[in-house]
Amino acid sequence: MGSATVPLRECLKSPSQLRLALSSASGSESTGPRLLLALCYNTKKRALVVTICRGADLPSQDSNGYSDPFVKLHLDPDPYHKKHKTSIKWRNLNPIWNEEFVFETRPTELSRQNLTLTVWDKDYGKPNDFLGSLVLGASSKGRRLKHWMDCIKFPDHRHEQWHSLTDTQHL
């Protein structure tokens, strides 16, 4: 196979076409606050392994123009009532966590469960600010449901995808 170099100015007539081409190639669902998640059902551990990879374009909640984000996550229903939380990434709107969490469950139960993630801005002396949420699982639709189902259908493989956050707070 060969390769060729072609100047971009000949491929795209305007800067807006270049921005459109680059944004569609990025693979993200949309602009706005979002999380990059990896899901894997591990058959040896008999557990769902969730990796919170990173966040992007999180809203600023602090007077310094930043947020101090962290993510809470839980599986519902979960007989063990296990809840997890990432570390806090101080003064950051595009945090990188790369933190892994394990939920013991059976693959047959996964088809009836939901993974709820909520993103918060850490505050001292007052309640934390809600930044957004995301639900993956049986009640999801579209790309979220596909991501969940791929995890169930293809165990022992890492399935990574960007998901937009919603402004609805899930308890």
From TrEMBL:
The lineage is: Eukaryota, Metazoa, Ecdysozoa, Arthropoda, Hexapoda
GO BP: exocytosis; regulation of calcium ion-dependent exocytosis; spontaneous neurotransmitter secretion
Question: Matching Pfam families, A to Z?
Answer: C2
Annotated SMART domains: C2
Q: Supply one GO molecular-function term.
A: metal ion binding
**Record keywords:** Metal-binding, Repeat
> Which species is listed as the source?
Euphydryas editha (Edith's checkerspot)
**What is this protein's name?**
C2 domain-containing protein
In this chain the C2 domain maps to 31-163
GO CC field: membrane; presynapse
Q: Which InterPro entries match?
A: C2_dom, C2_domain_sf, Rabphilin/DOC2/Noc2, Synaptotagmin
